[in-house]
Amino acid sequence: MTKSESELDPLWQNLDWAIGQMLIMGWDGTEVTPQIRNLIENHHLAAEQTASLVQELQTIAHQAGHPQPLLIAVDQENGGVNSLFDEDYICQFPSAMGIAATGSTELAYSVAKATATEVSAVGVNLILGPVLDVLTNARHQPLGVRATGDDPQEASQFCIAAINGFKDAGVATCGKHFPSYGNIDFLGSSLDMPIITQTLEELSLSALVPFRNAISAGRLDAMFVGGCGIQSAGMNVMHACLSDQVVDDLLRNELGFKGVAISECLEMQSLIQEYGVKGGTVMAVEAGNDLVLLCRAHDVQLEAISGLKLGVENGIISKDRIYTSLKRVLRLKSVCTSWQKALNPPGLSLLSKIHPTHLALSRKAYDQSIAVVRDKDNLLPLSQSLLQEEELLLLTPLVKPLPASAATKNILEKGNKAISMHERWIHQERGAIMSGEGVFRELGRSIARIRNGKLLHTSYTANGLRPVHENLINRASAIIIVTADANRNMYQTGFTKHVAMMCHMLRGTGQKKSLIVVAVSSPYDFAMDKSIGTYVCTFDFTETAMASLVRALYGEIVPQGSMPGTMRKSKKVSKTRQQWLVENYDRERDASALDELLKTLARSSTPSLPYITAGANSFELFNTHVEEAHFVVRNSSTKTLYGFVATYYMKGVGAIGALFVDPAKRNVSIGRSLHRRAMRSLLQRPGIKTVQLGLTFPGVFPGVPVDESGSNKSWFDNVGWDTQFPKRLTNMVIEDLGAWTAPEGLLQSIQRASLSFDLIHGLDNAESVLNHVATHAGPEVVELYRFALHETNTSGVVRAKNSMDNLLGTVIICTAGSRLSTYIPSLHSASGEDVGGIIAPIVPSTSQSRLILQGLVFMGVRQNKAHKSAKSVLSWVLDEAYEPLSAMGFDIQQTFDEITNSPENWSDLS
Fold it and tell me: Residue 754 is part of which domain span?
């Protein structure tokens, strides 16, 4: 028996059971069919779609002897893509791009948590989301508002906030669609595979950034691998989800993903035509997928099962390969479900209880997402620009109702065929706008009610401007045209421009013809067309979105939303010199608000940044050798902090030790205002010789966090720093200290070099150590050592000496109880486990420095193990010195660039 098999429940020795766990199936309808019962009882499968039948599915699985419950997965992306909809229990929330339009990662977190709480109540344990794609070709992509936008860093922030929301509600997460659906081209017919034409280097700088950041954040349970092709230099792949270059090499080896890989649905026509379902299923598993998705057809699903069995019989797929995937799937189940939870979902009682709160959150989110991109002639609100006796015309396109909507519910109740979520949104026809005149009927009624006056409402189609439209335009004083993905439905563009031209001509004759264009899906329809003077975006056309639109049009709310990504930034360029009031940090007034700001940043950042374990007290040293001054930008009415900067001065060195801004308030000059005030404060210090970004003590930010895109560093470039020659500082970690062993031969090498090590506590015999540190490091590192030596019970310094008793190097070590963890967040565990610290190794460059460093760190690890620490954190390793420490078993945790400049760079501020 293999090791893989022996670690598992004996039941999984039956290969049929193991294979069954590698397939994830869906079906049409809301009742248990004989086919799905057969799959669960006889083929031991997980289910893909769910509603109120989930408990019955889990009962069937339990009675069939499944050791763990089924994975129950849904597409619940919000906006237009929701598998679950019930007006009485399940709330509508904005699309991913709609949430991004609010500018609030806090709201993204709250909405995600609410969504996951609702689906969890009916037994769902896996959400197929969030969408991690970047719209690198935003105006022509079928994903549209399902993605956050075209800025990879902004997408990362919002997606990580969503992942945290899902996970905190107890639901597993699945990022999609790797490596990206945000940059695909359809080079042939709609049946052909969409193609990525970017190189891997281009993908790495844009499309892969949110995937990489989400993986680094550590809370992504699964990854959905797309069905697109890749045609570029270095990679020629017909189907990403069938390629080991994409799954095993790129996703697992390069990006370090250790969770469950799920393939795109193998019922795609292009895939069936080329490989067949049996061959495709085997290829998907060979490529590295752990779960193979088959959406609907029972005969196809059975074919996939037989294909996998045949693959094992033919020796194409090994038993070990099956058990590798099985263990990943079982690990995923263990974190998101149990029989107690699966057989006893809280159901409608919980949904009824939370519904009022979630409705209020939904309304808040939609209200904040509505974006007025332009209102050149001040037509909004209509209550001020349109008299009650004047006529208002609403022109709407014919669109298919959203699957999760009252309109679709009405269709289904009348006996019409269900709309398949997967077909509607993943394999949708290129022309997605079809019949469905009733979709905007309620919008018209709502406008009529709120204005308490006449409203004219009719639809328009690909037949263009008809006499009926001309007659109504002549009657009306104001016209609202609704567009829905006009870039993919060009008749809408032509119709809107025709009406705009007609209104322009009629205004020339002295008639009042106000024109408002509302994009209810992609905001890019007329984003760049300045001939449309008043342009509003809602980011989806759910009933709740349309209700918020009406409130915005009539001034009941002031629209706060903005265009996503780079368009938001380009719009705010004119505001980059806005000055904010900067105040001195007041501990009594601001500490709790600073803690809240840090929590907000933690929710929208990867754990590789220290926000999650930092607090307001992490920035105040109360050290007689250090002068410190901290500043805030705050809302004096709500007491909310928008940004914070910490500055320190000692022995001629002035440093910015932290500078951060609420993600919802970025790109409006708060950071610039804080930076200007911080630099003015530092430059006024008498005797200042050097200014630097980053500080070792306190060590919340030893430097500028290194990010893939270089955006952090470029920001500091733009405010005057020369960032060309940084000092690289790396934090490293041994995650499982109990399993760590010393590298072979290390002790012998230390002995041959006649190196000795001792551990000292207290300041009595520390003069040589402090002199050594002062000679080879900055004054803040001296204060760090002085602080550690004061803590005689929890910290100490290891000294390295040669046979002549000369001091060759030093390092601080500390136990979990050390107060150093207040100032060095990487020493603090959010999960409560004991962390041992090995801090600030100071080893001058000599022929022996590599071995001395390894020896010091080895002594630190031994001390950490002796104190029963769960893991060892090593801070901060200079430049390339991390390489010999990687060989000792340390992994890179965080990387920073400490930047040092001359005060003359800011002579205009002093």
Answer: 729-900
Does some domain include residue 364? no
Write the CATH number for 482: 3.40.50.1700
* Number of neighbours of residue 734 by Cβ within 10 angstroms: 24
Rounded Cα distance between 873 and 584, Å, is 34
Q: What is the pLDDT of residue 749?
A: 93
Of residues 101, 104, 82, the one with CA closest to residue 91:
82
For the chain, the domain total comes to 4
Centre a 10 Å sphere on the Cβ of residue 417 and count the other Cβ atoms it contains.
8
876: burial class by Cβ within 10 Å (0-12, 13-18, 19+)? buried
Residues 715 and 734 in one domain: no
Q: In 10 A of CB 860, how many CB atoms?
A: 25
For 507, counting Cβ atoms within 10 Å of its Cβ (0-12 exposed, 13-18 middle, 19+ buried), the class is middle
Per-residue pLDDT of 563-617, as tens digits, reads: 988 776 555 444 445 789 999 999 999 999 999 999 988 887 776 677 888 999 9
Cα 864 to Cα 618: distance, rounded to the nearest angstrom: 23
Contacts of 39 (CB under 8 A, 6+ apart): 25, 45, 298, 301
Angle at Cα 141 formed by Cα 137 and Cα 142, nearest 5°? 165
| Regions of the chain with pLDDT less than 70 | 1-8, 27-30, 36, 39-41, 43-52, 138-141, 186-192, 233-234, 296, 404-437, 568-577, 607-608, 708-709, 907-910
Query: pTM for this one?
Result: 0.76
For 285-334, what is each residue's pLDDT tens digit?
999 999 999 876 778 888 888 999 999 999 999 999 999 999 999 999 99
Would you say residue 529 lies in a domain?
Answer: yes
DSSP 136: T
Contact 36, 47 (CB under 8 A): yes
Amino acid identity, position 269: Q
Instruction: Name 748's Cβ contacts closer than 8 Å, sequence gap at least 6.
Output: none
Nearest to 785 by CA among 802, 760, 806, 822: 760
H runs (alpha helix) in 826-893: 849-866, 882-886
613's tokens: 């374990």
Q: Are residues 49 and 154 in the same domain?
A: yes
CA diameter of the chain: 102
In a domain, 421, yes or no: no
Point out the domain boundary residue: 666, 694, 724: 724
In a domain, 575, yes or no: no
Which tokens go with 791? 């803590």
What is the distance between the alpha carbons of residues 23 and 280, in angstroms, rounded to a whole number?
A: 13
Q: Are residues 824 and 872 in the same domain?
A: yes
Does 526 share its domain with 591?
A: no
Rounded Cα gap, residues 748 and 523, in angstroms: 66
User: Distances from the Cα of 435 to the Cαs of 33, 397, 402, 440, 485, in angstroms?
Assistant: 31, 9, 12, 12, 15
645 phi and psi angles, rounded to 5 deg: -140, 140
